[in-house]
Amino acid sequence: MEFRYLGNSGLQISEITYGNWLTHGSQVENDVATACVHAALDAGITTFDTADVYANGAAEQVLGAALAGQRRESLEIFTKVYWPVGPDPKGKNDTGLSRKHIMEAIDGSLRRLGTDYVDLYQAHRYDAFTPLEETMQAFADVVRAGKALYIGVSEWSAEQIRAAHGLASQLGVSLISSQPQYSMLWRIIEPEVIPTCQALGLSQIVWSPMAQGVLSGKYLPGQPPPAGSRATDEKGGANFIKRFMTDDVLTRVQQLRPVAEELGLTTAQLAIAWVLQNDNVAAALVGASRPEQVAENVKAAGVQIPAELLARIDQVLGDVVTSDPELVARSTPPQRMI
Ligand code: NDP
């Protein structure tokens, strides 16, 4: 495994980070989830990313149980707050980035994860209905209480990141990461978010580097998805992945196979290595529904892709790549969630 510093902090994280969205507490049984976490640890992964909203708290619980007994100092555990969490009917304040919700949510996350602190506490989206000053003050208080060591954001625009960074600096806390979607197919952070973060000292830790499995090449155009894959997961996965499941995308992804083979890689490994070519990316957040996938994916660590192959990838994918920076801001819900 290779390690990178997260932003301008002294925290090192494994450049392949294990994430458990849609899998733990939902698509996969708990014993398989535990086997995936152990495969990650065996492969040298030390960094784990989750969120309170994943499976409405169950993902944090399953991850916490799978990591129980590990040396805490040798792990970096990341979680997030924003989306509605809690028993139904949820209360008005069971969502967002108000002081009340942040203070209550961090305690719920720590309880479920079975740890006294998280290494990184992230705002899962921007909350347009809470003053940013209130949010950043609450995050700073979470850090001062020792419940989180660093703070980060997810799917925030360059402008939002700049404003938050200014407040965090005044409050004396370290805002060191941005967690956006980024893959060969989804490049909307390149024009604005990445240059802004480079200037301010934040790294990207990028989600769905494999476009949820599509960039592994296992989905074939015109054919039904393989049994047990995310595209067949009616608990949520099938809905989230469908944006990429067009014949045009799937046909072009098949054409990446010879590029991967030139490097002695699988297509999945090529996709993960691709996001790691960008110096501002500290980690690829990779999911898995089986331990064998983890073992395959970690081999993307440390791979260099020559410039001519990067150009070939761009040629192959052509106009199926999404690059519009306007889409960053659009991932923030325009109305309150509850
Ligand atoms: P990926 O793009 O890595 O997709 C992972 C999925 O692809 C696996 O669950 C598996 O699904 C399939 N897969 C993995 N390896 C292989 C392989 N070698 N060959 C074939 N298929 C493979 O990322 P995710 O979409 O899972 O997201 C990763 C993490 O990013 C999340 O766990 C979470 O931590 C974070 N995230 C953050 C978000 C945010 O808003 N901040 C949003 C979404 C994710 P299957 O076997 O079922 O097909």
TrEMBL record:
<dbReference type="InterPro" id="IPR023210">
    <property type="entry name" value="NADP_OxRdtase_dom"/>
</dbReference>
<dbReference type="GO" id="GO:0005829">
    <property type="term" value="C:cytosol"/>
</dbReference>
<dbReference type="InterPro" id="IPR036812">
    <property type="entry name" value="NAD(P)_OxRdtase_dom_sf"/>
</dbReference>
<protein>
    <submittedName>
        <fullName>Aldo/keto reductase</fullName>
    </submittedName>
</protein>
<dbReference type="Pfam" id="PF00248">
    <property type="entry name" value="Aldo_ket_red"/>
</dbReference>
<dbReference type="InterPro" id="IPR005399">
    <property type="entry name" value="K_chnl_volt-dep_bsu_KCNAB-rel"/>
</dbReference>
<keyword id="KW-0521">NADP</keyword>
<comment type="similarity">
    <text>Belongs to the shaker potassium channel beta subunit family.</text>
</comment>
<dbReference type="GO" id="GO:0016491">
    <property type="term" value="F:oxidoreductase activity"/>
</dbReference>
<feature type="domain" description="NADP-dependent oxidoreductase">
    <location>
        <begin position="15"/>
        <end position="316"/>
    </location>
</feature>
<keyword id="KW-0560">Oxidoreductase</keyword>
